[in-house]
Specification:
Layout lengths: L7 H14 L15 H21 L6 H8 L3 H7 L3 H27 L4 H18 L1 H10 L4 H25 L5 H22 L4 H23 L1
Length: 228
Amino acid sequence: MFVKQNVSNTHLCLEVIDIMAGSGSKTPGMRRQPRQARSQERVNQILDVAEELFIRQGYTATTTNAIAVGAKVPIGSLYQFFPDKAAILQALALRYTEQFHQCFTELATELASLPLAPYVERMIEVTDQFFREHPGYHAIFMEVQGTMPELEQLDEAADAQLIQAIVLSLSQHYPELDPQDHQAIAFVLVKAIGTLLWLSLSQEATFQQRLVAETKRLALNYLQSYLG
């Protein structure tokens, strides 16, 4: 979520993306990975239908049979890839994560020349936009929050990797800071920005916009207190 201003922005952003991208080689919970284009298309269709059903009628009320019917695949084909509904949700969670990081890959060039203030503002706007354009991300996981340790582990692992990527970038570009400062800054950025924007999604529209603005202000003032 943070990169150094001006030309260094691209390098730091790509460092974060590269480290995060390495986490998606094997989808947790899946019985086997699709290796052919046709199999991958079938898995994507299963995930698309599952997402729609989870949003419309809830995770608990949705069955694997309903997902198979909606995806127009035999139930046996579904079970070839996913042993149960929880595995489908885990794969969907990982897909959200990969889509989220792809947003920042596409922004790397655009943000390369921005100074700190507009860069922080743009990064937070992109995060907020992703949440709003993927309503299932919030709707589904609010229902199952606290009930599926596997999802919490995925979330913690993603945060931990992003934190360490930022720590690495800070240590390379701000060596004058103490290593404990690098760790603290990275942890606060990931947890504070992510939590505030997540909580804003359950608020009414006007207050949601206010929380996004406050998140920008918080992140910028916090970084400027260390970096100037």
